[in-house]
Amino acid sequence: MNLFAVFEVKRDAYREWNRRTSLRKTKLYSIIVAVTLMSVVMASYILTGGKKGILLNPSSFQYGTLTENADTVASHEEESSYVSNLSAVQNYANIKLVIKTIASKIEFATRRLPDFKELVKSEPHMFSVIPREFLENIKNPCWFEEYKANSTADPYGTNLYALYSKRFRTLFDYLRNAFRDHLYQKENKLCRFRCLPYFYIIGQPKCGTTDLYDRLRLHPEVRFATSKEPHWWTRKRFGIIRLSEGFHDRYPVEDYLDLFDLAAFQIQDQAHGNATTQYKHNIAIGEASASTMWDNNAWIYFYDNSTNGEPPFLIQDFIHAVQPDAKFIVMLRDPVERLYSDYLYFGIANKSADDFHEKVTESLQLFESCLLEFSMRSCVYNTTLNNAMPVRLQVGLYIVYILDWLSVFNRNQILVLRLEDHATNRKYTMHKVFNFLSLGSLTEQKEAEITKSPASNTRRPADKNLGPMLPVTREILQDFYKPFNVKLADVLQNDSFLWEKRGPEEGLCLLQTARGRPPWLCWEPRVKGLEAQPSRDPWPPSGGAPVPEYPGNPALPPHQEVLGGRRQGDTRMRSRHFRHTGAWLRRNAGKQLEPIRVPI
Ligand SMILES: *[C@@H]1O[C@H](CO)[C@@H](O)[C@H](O)[C@H]1NC(C)=O
Ligand SMILES: *[C@@H]1O[C@H](CO)[C@@H](O)[C@H](O)[C@H]1NC(C)=O
Ligand SMILES: *[C@@H]1O[C@H](CO)[C@@H](O)[C@H](O)[C@H]1NC(C)=O
Ligand SMILES: *[C@@H]1O[C@H](CO)[C@@H](O)[C@H](O)[C@H]1NC(C)=O
Ligand SMILES: *[C@@H]1O[C@H](CO)[C@@H](O)[C@H](O)[C@H]1NC(C)=O
Ligand SMILES: *[C@@H]1O[C@H](CO)[C@@H](O)[C@H](O)[C@H]1NC(C)=O
Ligand SMILES: CC(=O)N[C@H]1CO[C@H](CO)[C@@H](O)[C@@H]1O
């Protein structure tokens, strides 16, 4: 499978499209000349003391859909701005057609659910480790697992999380020391206590999940995995660590479970009456990988492609099969703003509003061409397409993912929040979360601590201040996302998911408590800032400033992961043969794989 070739084909289509647009150039040119003349007239009008407002009033130019751009063109006097805006004007008329086509192809079809047997067949090891039933009287899904290893062996010696992340060494040392004390004699067997999370924060990237995580972890009943974002279900399970590296060995489920051992020890201690807090038996374990909701990009390498290009299994099918009672928290924001934030955070060098506009246009083109051939679900989960799009349009199609989660879980198991609400009223969102997780009540002092606004790190990083996206880009994206938002608001029965109201969040620029993180993005006086950072600290906070795993690590620029070296043409160079170790569908084994682009 050569993703690159597919992409080249698409680029040809793009070029073809550009050729078509150039035919309209003549027509546009005359418009521009007219605009130029107009602005000269206007300028002299102003100079002679005319009404200033007329210049800014679009209705004084009768250009139909071009009004907004013509307006901008007219308000700039330098020749160069005409040139730079020409392409935006040109794009706009054509991209409207693209969005129209996309809108006509939108469908929310039900998916075929895999049966349990099929799931077990594809993940036999996972299902052999996790029991079908969990212990009663414990909030989390926990169980006793027979410990067969030789008593001198290191219980965490082969853990791949520990192996690949030096930051966890101290933590795993602690676990090693506590391990023997927590082995349990049960019916003449030596057992260890194992737990899965009670709840998951599953998405979306750049929507404030990190802020939610940072606040929630202050609740005395909440314990998170030792890695904030284990990305096990979506990536590590398939051997994906960094996209640029292709596939590694798959992380076995035991390695994932080890991340909950610290919390499991505490639950065990409580059960034996050694607890120091008043919150007995109520610990709620959480996991906060912001890829869980949407990222199924690994599927094409592992599963049969016989379902019309749609993945036969999604992440949620497996989670549902092992823990049907799990709870999920989703934080969303206006998808238009999310995309720009995503671009600014993960984008390559030389970012600008113009560059963003170009990338949005190209991505919409690619998305459209996929929809002309395939179903909407297959395009949203199409790894090739997702890798080819220079901005991650698909991540903002919230409803597509939500509906697929609702195909296996109940509505009341998924809490959907909005970043805009969280930014204006953290008390409101945190209360919703506490209720949703059935957490005990807090002292006023503790609650104030959890919901307080971040006191420090409110500097506005000038170097990251690229200004807002172009108004024309915003309009295009709003048009694109609108039908999806309409469906989302319908399914969630709340019109605030239309993101139509602007205003209450104006002037807000909340910055997150940053622990050695890159400076915060805050580029205009609307809600910005409470966005997920891809790098995680171990829990609990260890001494010293931890080095972010990626892509905050300066040695590994984020854009490499985002673009997978696509533009540099070195994609193939960095890909590796998939080293397959388990009993998996080996459709692609032995082939040269392209790296999957899966930044969070
Ligand atoms: C445990 O394993 C080590 C090497 O892995 C071996 O040297 C030792 O004899 C084993 N001990 C027992 C009690 O089996
Ligand atoms: C719990 O406390 C008892 C005595 O109070 C002690 O014997 C036991 O080792 C403790 N258990 C753990 C796991 O610390
Ligand atoms: C994904 O999209 C590309 C480009 O539109 C297409 O060639 C490919 O067949 C699609 N893959 C699947 C699995 O549908
Ligand atoms: C997957 O299936 C679709 C539809 O059957 C096909 O068009 C596409 O080329 C396939 N993709 C791959 C990567 O095999
Ligand atoms: C970014 O711009 C600078 C200066 O114009 C240029 O030297 C550099 O090569 C550009 N980088 C990329 C990745 O385009
Ligand atoms: C809709 O959501 C907003 C916050 O986004 C909330 O204030 C409001 O109560 C919700 N309405 C309903 C009917 O749930
Ligand atoms: C709509 C649009 O593209 N406006 C741009 C026109 O060019 C000037 C100068 O380059 C930009 O500042 C505008 O944003």
UniProtKB/TrEMBL annotation:
GO terms for molecular function: N-acetylgalactosamine 4-sulfate 6-O-sulfotransferase activity. Residues 531-557 are annotated as: Disordered. Gene3D superfamilies: P-loop containing nucleotide triphosphate hydrolases. Residues 537-557 have a biased composition (Pro residues). It is an enzyme of class 2 (transferase). Residues 200-460 form the Sulfotransferase domain. One of its GO terms (biological process) is hexose biosynthetic process. The chain crosses the membrane at residues 28-47. InterPro entries: CS_Sulfotransferase (IPR052654), P-loop_NTPase (IPR027417), Sulfotransferase_dom (IPR000863). It comes from the Eukaryota. Its EC number is 2.8.2.-. Keywords: Membrane, Transferase, Transmembrane, Transmembrane helix. Belongs to the sulfotransferase 1 family. This is Sulfotransferase. It comes from Polypterus senegalus (Senegal bichir).
